[in-house]
Amino acid sequence: MNRSIPQPPPPTGDSPPPRAPAARAAAGLRGALRRTAALALAAVLAAGTAAAPASAEDLPFRDPDLSVDERVADLLGRLTRDEKIAMLHQYQPAIPRLDIGAFRTGSEALHGVAWLGEATVFPQSVGLGATWDTGLVERVGGATGTEMRGFHAQDPAAHGLNVWAPVADPLRDPRWGRNEEGYSEDPALVGAMTDAYTGGLSGDDDFYLKTAPTVKHFAGYNIEERRDRVSVTVPPRALHEYVYPAFRPAIESGNATGVMAAYNKLNGRPAHVSPLLEDVRSWSEDETMIVSDAYGPSNVAGSQDYYDDHAQSHAAMLKAGIDSYTDQDADPSLTVDAVTSALEQGLITEDHVDAAVGRSLSIRFRLGEFAPDARNPYSGIGPEAIDTPEHRELAREAATEQMTLLKNDGALPLDAEQDGDVAVVGPLADTLYEDWYSGTMPYEATPAGGIADRLGGDGSVTAAEGADRIRLTTPEGGAITASSAADGGALRVQDSGESADAQGISVFEWGEGVVTLRTEANGKTVGLGEGNRLFNDQEQPNGWFVQQLFRFEEVGDGQVVLKYDGYDEWNQKYVSVGADGALTVDADTRDQAARFEKETLADGADQAVEEASGADAAVVVVGNMPFINARETDDREDIALPKAQRELVRAVTEANPNTVVVLESSYPQAMPWAQENAPALLWTSHAGQETGNALASVLYGDANPAGRLPQTWYRSAEDLPAMNDYDVIDSGHTYQYFEGDPLYAFGHGLSYTDFEYGKPELDRKRIGADGTVTVRVPVTNTGERGGDEVVQLYTSQKRSRVQQPAKELRDFERVHVEAGETAAVELEIDAADLAFWDVTSGSMVVERAKHDVLVGSSSADIRRTARIKVDGERIPPRDLSDDIRAADFDRYSPGAELVDETKAQGDAVEGAEGDWIAFDDSDLRGLSSFTARTARSQDGAAGLEVRVGSPEGRLLGTAEVPATGGVYAYTETTTELKRTGGRHRDVYLVFTGDLRLSGFSLTTG
């Protein structure tokens, strides 16, 4: 009964040894150079009348024995200009005259196939990251790819095999609304997991693809508020050391076939027109298809206001490397009109169109679309491959492996004989939630259900949600009354003498003041429906706009008003009562809203305590609902566990000393009281259909937990930087740079057994810049049961020209060790992985240095150490007499930002009065003049001071910068400098007004 709202498609971003790229190159995937020769061949084939084929089936592009380049070129030569332009849109139309069917990019497959019906639902990506098991993640990707093939067989045009997954954005900030979609804050772990998952999705054939994975969202994406307008500053070091390592492995190995451009601006330029997209292409010998995000193309000339019209913006996107435009749902008119206009204006040539279409066609060829079924190993996969017993078993294995034991004072594992009567309480005790990119679960094993099934007839399970049940009455004597029909009805104010069942409303608090309401009349959730009235007709919060969210606001005299808090245009309105008694969202102010008095019919915490106090053990299941407070378009304001849940945890823990707190959440949550006082804490992501069974197996010791946290858990939001501060080096965040005391460290996770680490053996202790060190470490299970240990290897560089991470993950292995046994774990350090981006040379550099080798069970639990020497480069003092790019600074003030030098390429630094950028260890001998290349649109005084030692240090000179009439209009300004009085100094350029600086030099004379 929800009212019909025109909704845009959801704006999605929305290991094993890799297959050798050379194998695919032999199959003909070369790129632009061979494409040129193949185009000439195609022209000959198309022109030769004597060799004209008898039917479309005999055309050269359908010959699987030709190279892909030859086949693509032949097909391009047969397409009209209009047909090729139409192929730039997400919904590529059929071409009947060539017997070519329709093709659609973009099926969602983040942790299982989404949005197409019942399918196996695996743990959220952050949960898969917590497994630290690339082999498992590859198998999950493989099962997902197989099920995608099954759906494709049902409807090839609608269920496309180009899948938009996984998300490779590092989880820089746990407040990010899409935290659940990423694997880890560490780029190496992200890169390994992304490579593994795409390897499963793409399959194991050297040429044909099971599906064509597209990694998202490139690049610098980690914020939802004004995500299409915000510009994030990503300096060169952060780009090359933090962003690229997350995306590159899957592209480089050939497992991923493309990337999706991000919504945000990157250094002032929309990611959809970023020249960095070509960097992605350089990582692979295969053709790489780059797709836009949903409605991203419209944004460039729309909300981002970067170009004057769509013709200009679409031309720029095509030149930057966008091959497929996801825009306006299935309506291609904006894309077609914009590209056609760009061609007619001479902004692009048909060669640009051919290049983009050719790349998407190459993917279609590899998916087997134009080959006989007998040649494609995946063509026989049908609907029977969806939700198989094997996939259910894999879902349970994955859900179990990601369970992460945070604390255990001996409460776990539970004993089925002694702990047979269990109270499972909390808002997530007997329900499972899907997230926006989940599939539809074919069945649900809830925590309470899983525990009950585990105990069988040997125990009893009672469940209580811990939610208050209230009645809302009006000053006039009425009460909100709900329909008892299964499909619900409009909520109305009626005589308060009605039964409590008809008027009972359970209130679930999810933090930040947001609540959901469930009517006890039919057990359905209340949401906004037809005519802006409230209906009790939803199983759970859902949809793009999430129209089931409310807030209570106190207005005095013990009364409250009800405010609608959904994500649509009616947000911020209040509930009123119409003449017919129906509750309607139409009041603009509190004064216009209906007033209610809250009467508590049942105290949720008291009910939970009553159940827990009489049980052998209590399991409190708290966490988040993935559609609320943190999801696409909505970042978290805080990281604390919601107040009502904190109070519930405290009350139950105090009532039953044998309490286990289970946090089922999409992200880290701060809960210091529980860490101090609860006997045991266990974290799980929303782990899909098998969550409850996996949880029960861990709680009762059938499985030994071995999940490890893939990101730092901070104690409060005060430990975090501003959301738009992407540069983790400068802000001091993630485990690599954070100097505070986290609640739980990166890599943390406990076991029911103990592991002892022996002395690591290194096959060499000194290597060159291209060398490798093999580290062998014995790991002994000293406990009484078998279990998995995740052995983590970090390094820490002792001296460097630049600030280095405190430690950085280099390798890891999840290994099973039986009780009393020892496993020989072999890990590797490649010297190339020790490189950092040297801003003085504009390249990755392995520095000559000593490195501590740290082996342990988390980033904070290092068991053994060793040391290696790396014979790398010595970075000389910086030579500022060259043309120095301003963006290649070493350090910068909080107000300085990277911006676009031109719309097409290059970065500049934008600053205001008092901002500065620093260039460390600079050789100043003999330098006596300063030349700056600047731009500024405002009149008035502005300039650049050259100082040494600090932003307030000795002033060498000031360059007065004139207004140039625009931020892209640059001019050079030169000024004389005083003698430096030193040799190697840190140089600071201090802004004295608003301006942009693209480059500078210090020269003699």
From TrEMBL:
Keywords: Glycosidase, Hydrolase, Signal. SUPFAM superfamilies: (Trans)glycosidases, Actin-crosslinking proteins, Beta-D-glucan exohydrolase, C-terminal domain, Galactose-binding domain-like. One of its GO terms (molecular function) is alpha-L-arabinofuranosidase activity. Residues 1-27 are annotated as: Disordered. One of its GO terms (biological process) is arabinan catabolic process. PANTHER family: BETA-D-XYLOSIDASE 5-RELATED, SUGAR HYDROLASE-RELATED. Catalyzes the hydrolysis of a non-reducing terminal alpha-L-arabinopyranosidic linkage in ginsenoside Rb2 (alpha-L-arabinopyranosyl-(1->6)-alpha-D-glucopyranosyl) to release alpha-D-glucopyranosyl (Rd). It is not able to hydrolyze alpha-L-arabinofuranosyl-(1->6)-alpha-D-glucopyranosyl (Rc). This is Exo-alpha-(1->6)-L-arabinopyranosidase. It comes from Streptomonospora salina. The lineage of its organism: Bacteria, Bacillati, Actinomycetota, Actinomycetes, Streptosporangiales.
